[in-house]
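Page 37, top half.
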Amino acid sequence: MTKRIQYTLEYPVRCSPAILYEFLATPAGLQEWFADKVDLRDNVFSFSWNGSVEKAQIVEQKPEEYIRLRWLNSQKDEYFEFRIQKSEVTNETVLVVKDFADKKEIQDQSRLWDYQIKELLHRIGSL
């Protein structure tokens, strides 16, 4: 199996870190933009899309700062993360997404995140 590469995407967001975190770390928030249905039990999110279910375990989190998840069917050292930062220059809230993909899939995966984050920004009224 080839080693997948970590990549990082950044998105400016016009809302408070507290509100943004709710959309990134709660079943109700994630269900607004990330999946059709989201459940959480024993630190494991179940994400449903068109009848298929994928599960991701919460690896680490700090309220209003970040949440790191690992798909249960992925490599142990791979994860995806939503991190909330403040730009020191503009004082703007920035959502940083970290994920892993094969080198040839990074562009497609980045486009998928762009689409998902656009939906998130629409839901929180940040577009």
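Page 37, bottom half:
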Amino acid sequence: MESITKPRSDLGVRTLSGIAMMLVATVAILFGGWLFRIFVILVAVGLLREWFRLAWQLSSDGVGRLLWAAGGIVYIGVATANLVALREISEMYLVLTVIGIVIATDTGAYFAGRTFGGPKIAPKISPSKTWSGLAGGMLAAAILASAVGSHFEAFAIWQPLIGAGLAVVAQAGDFFESWMKRRAGVKDSGSLIPGHGGLLDRADGLLAVLFAVAILLAVVHFDAGVWRLS
């Protein structure tokens, strides 16, 4: 009788690599300055490498690949440049808030989706994403944005609205990267992070939010912790 070998769980590897990522990112954010800039540059290079790899699979002609590559340079370039800008204009306040909103979105979506289930948003692109999960992510992000906003200034209705809106953006970024991988016929964007796949797999939602915040900053002026229309 043949023995059946169960596949080894990668939970330990995922946990260790996740902790390592958090430690490196935390140190870079805390120190700021050139250390943070170098960290972001290295991450941007890694993200672009994976994007180009997907772009090569997404199109079979040179023009299509060039357009995908150019789009990636703009998308990733604006998002990562904005990350550095946020760190410099507000020290750690905005950087941690943006990252916190993405984490809150993922956490709220996970627990709401597991608890309530229900219809899928786009099962052919991401089979696990549900409308209840999206609602849970929006609620969690809205609560976090309200809590942070109330700490630095008086509560305003735009705070939860922006939090919920950025949660939708984060989920859209996740869907977009999933769509790219499915169209390219790959499971992960890369294999740089043990147990997690590539950098794009981990930063898809954050990239979308940073890009959206960059657009928001183009029409809204930030001064001493207060948002004002330009």
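Margin note: The radius of gyration is 19 Å.
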